[in-house]
Amino acid sequence: MRYSTHICERFQHGAEILGKRWTGLIVMLLLPGPRRFGELAAELEVVSDRVISERLKELEREGIVERRVYPETPVRIEYALTEKGAALAPVINALQAWSERWVDAVPLTEGK
Amino acid sequence: MRYSTHICERFQHGAEILGKRWTGLIVMLLLPGPRRFGELAAELEVVSDRVISERLKELEREGIVERRVYPETPVRIEYALTEKGAALAPVINALQAWSERWVDAVPLTEGK
Questions:
Q1: Which residues, including other chains, have CB under 8 Å from residue B23's CB and lie 6 or more apart?
Q2: Predicted TM-score (pTM) above 0.95
Q3: What is the pLDDT of residue B1?
Q4: Mean per-residue pLDDT for B25-29?
């Protein structure tokens, strides 16, 4: 990149986080508030639990999602957006508006 | 997907278009106006011409970029955003703002 090296680097990384299969959707599902694993899995029914679990771990490593453990009986575990994750709301909303207007619906499969 | 099947499908597809390595950046570079191949290549200097060319073809297939050929001597070829492509501006701008605020700079390499 010439004139805008660091802008390009950060943008590219941000775009790849959201573009990775299911990651953007998981963030979208967490925007309204924390969810349990089973609730996410029920929404993302074409995706295996293993893949959802991997994506949540990646989002935790990126500092976008946090895993909250409540020491109740039985233990309650919720996934919530961090401040960094919640700051993605304008991106997700703009992408959702664009997709609804411009992208033809194609059936989802789990893919890779 | 349960309650929001077609929203999820379209969103996922839209996120993957932008998230594919270099695609979002190419759209960002075209937002101010049409560019020639050589101008794009100069900005994306870590990316090979072959990869830039592939990405431009994919964006053409998605209806996001159009290739304009002006029959001058020598022939002038420009890449421009279509209406669908220009409609990505709010997404790109929101993602750029988020990335600048929240993503640490990491050096870019061509990658896959």
A1: A15, B17, B55, B58, B59
A2: no
A3: 45
A4: 92
